[in-house]
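User: Hey, quick favor. My workstation is busy. Could you predict this chain's structure for me?
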Amino acid sequence: MKIRLALPKGSLEKSTYEFVENAGYRIHGKERTYRPSLNDPDIEVKILRPQEIPLAVAEGMQDIGITGEDWVLETRADVEMLLKLEYGKIRVVVAIPKPFPASNFTELLKAFYEEGKTLRISTEYLNSTSDYIMKNPFYREKYGDQEPLIITPWWRRGSNSQVGIFLSFGATEAKPPEDADAIFDVTETGSTLEQNNLKIIENVLSSSSVFIANRNSMRDHAKREKIFDVMTLFKGVVEGRQKIHIFLNVRKENLKALLDGLPALKRPTVSELSDKAWYSVNTIIGKDEFLKILPTFRRLAQGLVVHIPRQILSLEEISKDENKKD
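Assistant: No problem, here it is.
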């Protein structure tokens, strides 16, 4: 049974190829075609824009895909969110020209309301922006359940012309002040906004890459088996990037003290060495935990080796997730 996998083009492209190849797959022809092949003949790959992938998966044109969580929310696609992949992290923010005195979105809304002016917002995220605005307490007080007027070249939606949301096709940060009063846009560091004389006044959402699946594909036993194989490998890469594998030697009299303070994925492996006064310990710990426990290692252990794993496969967890689907 073959499954169809959609991979993103654009800003997520390079990091996605790296992630997939770290999972053990080899992608052939990615530079020349939108239909590259994998070293797994049971998976058909297609390259799509990340904006397209949630709906392609929801509608069954693709069984599984990697895209940004922001686009799953924006398209309101009915997909199964299998795994956050922890790369491609971005924020969607509200930004306005620096000279404008507002320090948050409520102040911005209030200023335009009191002056009787239409607030013009430019964004690629029409639905997410509308949802965010309609949850604002000041907006609800003044406009109730009226949806902001959403304007694209092909259609208009919404009834509140005092707040207009205009579809941007890119370079959104260049729109203010002539073509927009505010933008809802993606940023990683904020430097591009700064260079365009804009300031961030509010965070709308945070997003990273996600692994999603079609709900009907997950109900198909043969496809689900293959999807969980892929998920196992992907989850292993996520775990591998978050943890380190350590090997160390410790004297017998210090063993208990070291183990008592040692966080572990499960129980550490402890082996007696040829010298009966020494033991070898190896285990997996979080990268953040390593710096905290380093003083303990220095005091109690010798011969510390740190290895960064490519993957850590927690097979029992995947099996439990699979059994829940039965």
